[in-house]
Each structure stands twice: as structure tokens, then as C-alpha cells.
Amino acid sequence: MGNKTVAFLWDESFLWGLMAYNALKATGLPFELVRSDDIKNGKLKDYRMLFVPGGWASNKMKTLGEKGISEIKKFVNSGGNYLGFCGGAGFATLDGIGLLNIKRIPTKQRVPSFSGKICLNINEHHIWKRIGKHSHEVTDSPIHPFTHSPIFHAWWPSQFLINDKSIKILATYGNALPDSFSSDLNVGDVEANGGWSEMEEIYKINLNPTRLKNEPAVVEGSSGKGKMILSLIHFDTIDDANGAIVLSNLWEYLSGQKSEETPKLNSSLHHSIIPSILADLESEVDELISLGIRNFLWFWKNPMLLQWRRGVRGLEYCTLYVMIKEIAEILKKQQSAVSSQLDLEKIKELLIMFTEKAKQLLILERYAMQNGHITPLSPPLSREGWGGENIPEIHEMRTELFGNSKSHGGLFKKLIDEVDNVLYALIKNKEA
Description:
2 domains; alpha/beta; Rossmann fold; globular
């Protein structure tokens, strides 16, 4: 293996990539961003560990192609270590590229829409060594397994199906906290007012977070000479002190590197005048999010994640907003980081096209919610259960904006790819 520490795969991560980037920077952990083309060209040999953050595993596989997937397998088998969070964990399973002998439970059989804080039952391991008896404490010695349930965050995770006894289960799910959500339902509110049976009958999906209890949340395995840790828990959640501790332990365990001193902000950065085009981009996403808030479609859970009502594509809108804001923040702080005017113009053109239709769609979906139960994906061309006359229009607009699957598609995919390319270039320029 090479002398460099960690390769961070940026592609097809979007919001989750940015969240992980910010968490790693705040924790002072060493890494370098790489793209799929870098991996295809053999750059992994320079690193000790590959980190793959959240995001749609299927889209990561498409971007890497057979060559990139082969390079990752060769890297791990030769002794490189692998860390995957959520989508990055699913990417390594048999449902992904098959690095580890684990499957994912089919969506209909799992709790597909849990988000928020949850306790873990943890087995003794290096990665937990500084979590104290109470979740806010820090100690210097390893914990004894199952003596407490530290709190972390899960964001719409899949679930593992494990039959291979060589796979080590490092943690299982415990109890969900009352301020967490299942779909758009607050866990504490539901449990205080009758329970989940009626809601599951209405929503036609598994909602009760107790279905997660004792299911594997963090696992470890190996392939060839390489070690792998797959986590359905987001230890990279913003402002998560426990997560930051585990991140540092994961880095030490898999890459051999400890946290560096947290970088200091350069107070001498030259502030440029915000170009009008940047103000336009911010204005577009501000109004889009504000429309959702005033129509009771979503609210902010933390500075990077919305909680939305079932029936709208909240994650996509949230992703777009956060990434545009990050671009604006970098451009405001660093004169040298100004992006190509043509890149921003292209984003503006696509963004205006997207937001104009998205705002219309959100209002139609809001009205449809008043008439009956709706689902996040495109509805069938049927009026049954919707009670409205706008079903064909909603279907057509959803398809145009997002495609016909859960993963990113349609106009949104074209837009977010452009945003992602600009953000990646700005971050790399900032670090140069």
C-alpha cells in the first residue's frame, strides 16, 4: 500500500459527501478527495484506506464502471482498508460490488424511512474506545460491551442481512429517541398516542422503529488482506460529538493515522463582492425552501438536513440547497476560488428551469395531500386514493424533474451534477 492515508470517493455522494467532508475537516482527519476517473487510473495504490460516504450505491457503480470496481476490489484484496457509511456501506455488499458477504434486506421487509437519533448496543472494539458510560463522557480505556447505549444518528438507512459467521457485528440498533422520525411521523408523538399499527396500515410500509432493535448497524469483515467496516450509522453527522470520536477511532484503526490539529480559519481571506449570478442562485434555492416551509412540507432538523412530509422529494431539495449554499460560502471567502462564469451561468439556467417547475409541483403535491395518502414516487395514472384532478400533471412533472426511480434522475440529476462539479473544483482549489 502507498504512503498516503485516505482516499475519499467524492462522486455520486452530493449532500452526504459534503456532510462527510465538513465532519472530517472539523475533526482534523487527513484525507484526499478522489473521483472515479482517479480510481480507474490506478490511484488507489497510493493510499492505505478508501472511504465511501453515503449516496446511491447504484449510481456510484455506474460512474466507476467495471474498471473502477475492479480497481477497488484489487485495492482491498491487496491490503487496502475500506470504510463505507450508509450508501457507501451498501456499495460494498453483495447487492453492490460484492466486497463483503452481506446482503441488504428488501425495502418492503425493512423500516425504510427512519431518520434521527438512535441508541446503539456496542461490542468491544477499538472504534468505541473513547465512548464513556454515559453518551457525553469521554474515557481513555475501551468500554465493556453492552454496558451502555451511546447515541448516534441514522439517516434513512438500509438493513443488513448476514448469514456469514465470519462477519463481526460491532453494533446493533437499540431504542430510537423520541425526537427521531419514521417517514414524516415523530417517534415520541406516535408512541405517546396509540402506537404504530394504525399508521403502518395507512402508510403501507413498516414504520415502527422497534423493528430495528438488535439488527446489525455496524459490521466488520475482510477480503483478501484488507479490512472493511460498513456502517449504517452516520458518524459524520454535523455537530455530533460521539460521531467525531468514532470517526477519529475509525481513521486510526483503518488508516493508522490519528486526528491532526483542527485547521484554523484564515482570517486574512480576501472577501470578494458577490457576483449577481451568485445572488441569483442563492435567491432561487432560498425561495424554494421557504415555499416548502410555509406550506408545512418540511422543516430543518439540523443545518444540513430537512425533515419532510411523505409525498415530496425532500432529500433532493435539501441537497440542492446545501450544495448551492456551500458554493456561495466558498466564493464569498476566497477571491482565488472564483469559479468559471460559464459554469455558474449553466447552473443558473438549469436551476431556474428546475425551481420554476418544482414550486408548481410542490403546491400540487400539497393539495393532493389534503385529499388522501400519497407516496414519494411518481403516482400511477389513476385517481384512486388521490381524490384530485391533477394526477397526470403531477406524474408528468415528477418524471421530468426526478425520473421514475428513487435514485436521482431527470432534470435534477443534470443540475446536481453541474453543481457537484463546481463544488468539487472549488474545494480542491481551496485545499491547494
